[in-house]
Inverse folding.
């Protein structure tokens, strides 16, 4: 039975269902019991499953990640909550040098089935050390899966998939989406990793995005439709692996690719998508590929400064209009 | 004033700073709830005696570093509350031009090397600053303020070891308010806690009632004198309590009203006031510094409300010297 719920509630439900389904699943992090997570995404779970399966930790990020690594190679499926993605950097070594390497270095003797949840993105003045979008960092690391849900239903289905995945998964929830409501089928199973969502169909231009930027892109697509420009809006949902097939099919049809991301544009994941499409489909392109993203600055505090670093629907529209000028 | 002792005069000055901090924090909370301040605000109310008692023993050339609950430390070190309030409001002439916000106030002109959004990172930076003091053979000390939650982060333990092996002029001030966000630190801290950990690295220091301004001041005076004389790192462990929730977004429902009320009985401002009265300082004098502090912060609030916002182009300045932001 389809129910309206928030992005945070959907993730809470998914974790609860996975913990019921599999006694090896457990969660650890700061303030999970008393606070129930930054946005209530763990609310009530410690009461239900007890303090051994929903573990309140000290402020010890390296150990949170390391405990998850150790427990993952020893028969459990930990969900390591790092709160702000910015603090996950305190545990980058454990994630990059340990979690991502163990299976390969040890010739497949062990898997590292952990999920690390990290809240990314801007949320109204959280400033330089609480607003970063770090997805491209993790995509660059062989061994890691990177997931970026952008709707309540996806946060339900993708978290289930992440927990069932035998690889270490970096699961990036966007802070700006916690309160967003949408339909969720509580009985729905996992959403396959690596499958994009074709949010909207149109033959003039392919607009690729992920995470919180999906919201801005949906607004832009609506505005563009009113101007007679029909876009294929693709939410990648998973950045590694990413759904080349869907993107390539779309760009083959539209001949135009625009990528919008909240993260810093330089060295961002959009560059990867652009390069791959450029290599594979150059003869089908009718306009240069374009990328929109944040300038290469830390995220500033004050509103007008933060806005200057944010990709707006208007910017997306302007880029799309330029790219489709004189479209055939 | 002339009738009271030098000590009373000194304490009266410290009381003035405590009032400025308290008024600042209450105003900051109101401003956040009224929607003038973005992000969140971690108020220092109840802990003022620690920042003030320690910083009263520092010179403008000495360094401090701080954490997310940093307004009190900045004010005690001499930062201008008007510029700080403007920073909270995201204004162009705020302490950091509106780029930092509540959790990222720094004022290098008075040796305030920065509040910090990452728990324990301020302490490690202070140790590095102390190393520079040593290399440059300067007559300075570095002081770092952090909470009881920070002591479970590895980098803090590394900083203890480091400060000791290089005999650095640094004072570690642990403000033990019993909580790390919504978690009781006692529940997640093994052994004897901060003091035992510092001592296990060979770092000595003192434990004080952090709500007793005179005790903090006296201990800080002794410890800082010892550090200045080349005695190496020291710690100050100060027990205290924050009157407000963790930050303005937190409901604070993990603490009982009874516990909060008991601690309010030990309010550092009330205790300092009582001591001053016992020393023959007139009530009118105390009332007048309180009124002055309130007026100062009201002016800061009003000034912040009307101060100009930064122009968007400021977002692109001060990123780095080499390479444009785009
Ligand atoms: C490395 C890191 N982990 C987690 C957080 C989130 N956080 C901010 S303040 C805080 C509690 C800090 O407690 P304590 O050090 O005792 O300082 P207090 O808030 O009590 O002054 C936490 C967990 C953070 N800012 N940085
Ligand atoms: Mg504390």
């Amino acid at each position: 039975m389809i129910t309206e719920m928030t992005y945070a509630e959907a993730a809470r439900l998914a974790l609860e269902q996975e913990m019921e389904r599999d006694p090896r699943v457990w969660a650890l992090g700061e303030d999970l019991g008393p606070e129930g997570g930054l946005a209530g995404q763990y609310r009530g779970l410690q009461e239900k499953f007890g303090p051994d399966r929903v573990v309140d930790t000290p402020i010890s990020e390296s150990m949170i990640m390391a405990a998850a690594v150790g427990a993952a190679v020893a028969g459990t499926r930990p969900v390591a909550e790092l709160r702000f993605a910015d603090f996950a950097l305190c545990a980058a070594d454990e994630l990059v040098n340990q979690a991502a390497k163990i299976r390969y270095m040890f010739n497949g003797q062990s898997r590292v089935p952990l999920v690390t949840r990290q809240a990314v993105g801007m949320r109204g003045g959280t400033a330089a050390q609480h607003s970063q979008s770090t997805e491209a960092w993790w995509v660059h690391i062989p061994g890691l899966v990177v997931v970026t849900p952008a709707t309540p239903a996806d946060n339900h289905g993708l978290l289930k998939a992440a927990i069932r995945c035998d690889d270490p998964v970096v699961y990036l929830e966007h802070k700006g989406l916690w309160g967003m409501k949408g339909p969720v089928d509580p009985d729905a199973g996992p959403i396959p990793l690596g499958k994009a969502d074709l949010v909207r169909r149109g033959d003039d231009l392919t607009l690729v995005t992920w995470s919180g930027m999906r919201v801005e892109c949906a607004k832009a697509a609506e505005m563009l439709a009113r101007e007679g420009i029909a876009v294929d809006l693709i939410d990648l949902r998973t950045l590694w692996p990413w759904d080349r097939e869907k993107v390539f099919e779309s760009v083959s049809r539209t001949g135009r690719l625009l990528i919008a991301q909240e993260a810093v544009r330089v060295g961002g994941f959009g560059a990867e998508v652009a390069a791959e499409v450029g290599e594979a489909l150059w003869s089908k392109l009718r306009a240069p590929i374009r990328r929109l993203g944040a300038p290469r600055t830390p995220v500033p505090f004050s509103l007008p400064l933060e806005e200057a670093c944010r990709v707006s629907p208007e910017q997306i529209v302007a880029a799309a209009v330029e790219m489709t000028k004189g479209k055939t | 004033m002339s009738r009271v002792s030098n000590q009373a005069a000194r304490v009266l000055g410290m009381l003035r700073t405590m009032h400025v901090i308290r008024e600042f924090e209450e105003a900051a909370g109101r401003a956040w709830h009224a929607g003038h301040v973005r992000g969140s605000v971690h108020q220092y109310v109840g802990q003022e005696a620690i920042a003030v008692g320690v910083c009263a023993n520092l010179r403008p050339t000495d360094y401090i570093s701080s954490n997310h609950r940093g307004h009190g430390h900045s004010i005690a070190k001499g930062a201008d509350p008007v510029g700080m309030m403007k920073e909270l409001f995201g204004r162009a002439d705020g302490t950091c031009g509106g780029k930092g916000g509540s959790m990222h106030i720094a004022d290098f002109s008075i040796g305030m090397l920065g509040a910090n959004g990452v728990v324990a990172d301020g302490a490690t930076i202070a140790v590095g600053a102390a190393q520079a003091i040593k290399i440059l053979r300067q007559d300075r000390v570095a002081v770092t303020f952090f909470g009881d939650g920070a002591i479970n982060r590895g980098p803090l333990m590394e900083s203890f070891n480091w400060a000791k092996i290089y005999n650095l002029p640094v004072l570690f001030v642990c403000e033990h308010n019993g909580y790390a966000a919504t978690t009781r630190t006692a529940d997640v801290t093994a052994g004897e806690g901060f003091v035992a950990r510092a001592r296990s690295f060979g770092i000595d220091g003192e434990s004080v009632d952090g709500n007793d301004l005179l005790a903090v001041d006296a201990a800080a005076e002794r410890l800082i004198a010892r550090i200045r004389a080349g005695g190496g790192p020291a710690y100050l462990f100060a027990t205290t309590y924050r009157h407000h929730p963790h930050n303005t977004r937190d409901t604070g429902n993990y603490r009982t009203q009874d516990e909060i009320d008991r601690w309010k009985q030990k309010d550092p401002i009330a205790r300092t006031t009582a001591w001053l009265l016992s020393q023959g300082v007139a009530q009118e004098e105390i009332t007048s510094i309180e009124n002055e502090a309130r007026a100062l912060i009201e002016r800061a609030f009003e000034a912040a409300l009307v101060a100009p916002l930064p122009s968007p182009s400021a977002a692109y300045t001060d990123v780095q010297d080499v390479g444009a932001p785009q």
Remarks:
- Chain A touches chain B at residues 30-31, 34-35, 56-63, 86-87, 90, 124-130, 265-266, 295-298, 300-309 (CB under 8 Å).
- Residues 3-184 of chain A form a domain with the Rossmann fold fold (CATH 3.40.50.970).
